[in-house]
Design goal:
Elements: E1 5-12, E2 15-19, E3 24-33, E4 37-42, E5 45-51, E6 59-64, E7 73-80, E8 85-95
Parallel strand pairs: 2-8
Antiparallel strand pairs: 1-3, 3-6, 4-5, 4-7, 7-8
Length: 107
């Protein structure tokens, strides 16, 4: 019998402020099982897919090197199995370059 446990996801940090040209490390922790795949989205567009092989939930990461203004926005990780999905999100802000559309984010 295949044991299943409800999926949940946590993406850290919730708000990430990175320097222009720096590196960004987002970590998605998935609890529950089985986990078949994890998909990453930036501003609702798919950017990366990771196959989890059905193992019990664990950590999945997404890295950006040489961060630029176009990397700003909302990142989401979605964990899937045959029965359900779970998602978590994080907001990335890039500092160090003038932007005419300055946003203020409240935690």
């Amino acid at each position: 019998t295949l044991f299943t446990d409800s999926l949940s996801a946590t993406l850290t940090p919730r708000i990430y402020r990175a320097d222009l040209g720096g590196s960004v490390y987002l970590n998605c922790t998935v609890r529950g099982q089985p986990v078949h795949r994890v998909e990453w989205f930036h501003n609702q567009r798919p950017i990366h897919s990771q196959y989890a092989g059905g193992h019990e939930g664990s950590s999945f990461s997404y890295t950006i090197t040489n961060a630029r203004q176009e990397h700003k926005g909302v990142y989401q990780c979605f964990a899937y199995n045959d029965e359900e999905s779970a998602q978590a999100n994080s907001i990335l802000d890039i500092t160090g370059e003038f932007s005419s559309a300055t946003s203020h984010i409240e935690a």
